[in-house]
């Protein structure tokens, strides 16, 4: 049995799509997301130039034509889990990176995947193995891999990341992760994580259970919406959800110049990380709490009352978030990570053991809303599991490409 305190990724069955579609059909398949996030308007402000987004995931194919030149391959914290000589699949990480910073290809980059921040750069930090990799069980059971997420966060911060995308999940927290998140926030780095995909499964006292690193204070938690911009059936709901984004039938890139269609809070998270990158490109000194406030106050399709546990403050809108960020740009508040645990203080679980993190219940949502509106510190997080039901979309013959 796998230790639930280990970080895991859950990939669903992969279905080959027939017939193959052209790369420009891929761009057409992105139009609903582009319109929902109001990217055409947001790109009038900028496209993320100068921002580095760390993708803590299964690795990124830096040779994919829609990512070429934008990816720096960083440290592999899973090294030793797979047998020597095994090539990482890098499917999920490539997929997420393309949604964040894909720049397309062909004439004027109009074919293939366009990310939310197409001029941003990606730092690939490998902290998970995909289900099909031979070292998956070893990775999720060996003690030496227990704190790969914490180590990956600190590494990304020290490498200059402005935003960290985490489409990963575990049920137990550790003090090392909490300390790493505090470190990142203190350095002005925005952390974004997925709310998880157990919304139609295990329910605890009326809401889907929390997981980590997303349920730590200071992490922007993202839920997934369906085509009608309502909570997707699989998306977790609880009071750590801050905002939502489209998470059903999302086009993305895969290794070897392939394209994929999938669903999950992972995809929604990548889209929100892209919006955070746009904000940091325009306002590089904006603190993580204020970025979180811009994301939440700029959201559309807000639920009755302004907040609920299904979609948070609503669906992220890039243009509106940038506008809200502009209003906040004159503020001087700096995130300090004060909500994170002081490593010098003892923990009930012991120095190396799991930490029981107290999360808010329904009665605290109103207070949370007020805090977010007043100070922008509502970037609380939630689960980050990946649940992909994808079908492969082969690229067209090279004769169809420019």
UniProtKB/TrEMBL annotation:
Active site annotation, chain numbering: 57, 92, 266
Keyword check for Transmembrane: yes
Protein name: Serine protease
UniProt-recorded Gene Ontology molecular function terms: serine-type endopeptidase activity
Transmembrane segments: 367-390
Range of residues in the leader sequence: 1-23
Pfam families per record: Peptidase_S8
Domain (Peptidase S8/S53) ranges: 48-314
UniProt record, GO biological process: proteolysis
Family from the record: Belongs to the peptidase S8 family.
PANTHER family named in the record: CEREVISIN-RELATED (PTHR43806:SF11), PEPTIDASE S8 (PTHR43806)
Record's keyword terms, sorted: Hydrolase, Membrane, Protease, Serine protease, Signal, Transmembrane, Transmembrane helix
Membrane in keyword set: yes
